[in-house]
Design a protein that fits this description.
It is found in: Cytoplasm. One of its GO terms (cellular component) is cytoplasm. This protein is an alpha/beta fold and 322 residues long. It has one domain: 3-Layer(aba) Sandwich (Rossmann fold). The protein is built from 13 helices and 14 strands. The strands form four sheets. Strands 3-2-1-7-8-10-12 form a seven-stranded parallel sheet, with helices on both faces. A three-stranded antiparallel sheet has the order 5-4-6, with helices on one face. Strand 1, helix 1 and strand 2 form a beta-alpha-beta unit. Helix 1 packs parallel to helix 3 and helix 5 packs across helix 6. The longest helix has 13 residues.
Length: 322
């Protein structure tokens, strides 16, 4: 039986490691945040009150086994001058339509996964849109993923609610089952406070993460993020993750030790990042985790990214499959 891997996150980081993992002999499930409220996803959320589809679209595309031209169509964005359709991705509109046809986002995604011959499972963490809240170190609070990101303040902690004030967020049952049955749970890579943590703070997800017997792995970010993780080491990322889960559950931290060249990154193009994440092996060990450091760096597009194949190989090695 193939090992079961659950990957938790959102944003653009997850597809980097999903693409090579779908080629491995694994049963892969991606748990995706539904707290995004910016860009095309945010507009659709406001217009027709659906779960924001952008992160889900990216994961579906990463796991699909269909003609590449179909994937290009799903990722295509209308031009800025196209008025009503401006900046909308075709895939987002298709997910919105399928949600209306199926009656909920979860069934819509499962149906689309069948059409796209998805190699694994794509699970929105909740069947309803969630609102991300943050309290900053100065004691102020904000609601909304895009508002929190653009505030560029130091975050203390985050939590999620339903769309209605005081509404308790509910996890999709399949998400809880996948975590409980997993051989490995992988966090990230991705924005810690706005892509990864919105999933783990859903109460049923948090409880499952505390109870599962799976090996748990955090893929440490290569660069810090302005307002979210300025000056964070890999150990400080881990500390925030464990704190939001409510227990020191992470067993391994996979950290890039390859130096990013000083003059390579275009900080205007990638304006949300600030500097390379430093490694702190002793502080990782204090939290009961093992740091796995190595060259996991891929330099492209004037930015610093994870080498997805190297990360996938390391995960398989942790599972004892390589």
């Amino acid at each position: 039986m193939n090992p079961k891997i659950v990957i938790i996150g959102g944003g653009s980081g997850l597809p980097v490691i999903i693409k090579p993992l779908v080629r491995e002999a694994v049963d892969l499930s991606a748990v995706v945040t539904v707290a995004d409220d910016g860009g095309s996803s945010g507009l659709l959320r406001d217009y027709i009150n659906i779960v924001p589809p952008g992160d889900i679209r990216n994961i579906l595309v990463a796991m699909a086994d269909v003609d590449p031209e179909i994937l290009k169509l799903l990722q295509y964005r209308f031009h800025a001058e196209d008025e009503f359709f401006a900046e909308h991705a075709v895939g987002n509109l298709i997910i919105a339509a399928m949600t209306e046809m199926q009656g909920n986002i979860f069934d819509a995604v499962q149906r689309l996964a069948t059409f796209l011959h998805v190699c694994g499972h794509v699970y929105p963490v909740s069947n309803e849109p969630l609102v991300l809240h943050a309290e900053f170190k100065n004691g102020s609070t904000l609601a909304g993923e895009s508002e929190i990101t653009h505030a560029h303040q130091t975050i203390d902690h985050v939590w999620v609610t339903g769309d209605e004030p005081g509404e308790e967020p509910k996890a999709a049952p399949e998400v809880v089952t996948a975590i409980m049955n997993a051989d490995m749970v992988v966090y990230g890579p991705g924005s810690l406070f706005t892509s990864i943590l919105p999933n783990v703070v859903v109460p049923e997800v948090r409880q499952a993460l505390q109870q599962t017997s799976a090996k748990q792995v955090y893929i440490a970010n290569i660069m810090t993020q302005k307002g979210e993780t300025d000056a964070y080491t890999d150990a400080q990322h881990l500390l925030a993750l464990n704190a939001h889960i409510g227990a020191p559950v992470v067993n391994y931290v996979v950290s890039n030790s390859k130096k990013v060249p000083d003059d390579f990154v275009d900080f205007q193009k990638w304006n949300e990042i600030s500097k390379q994440v430093k490694l702190d092996e002793s502080a990782v060990k204090v939290q009961g985790a093992q740091q796995i450091a190595g060259d996991f760096l891929q330099l492209r597009d004037a930015g610093a990214f994870h080498d997805g194949q190297k990360i996938a190989d390391k995960l398989m090695e942790i599972l004892g499959k390589k």
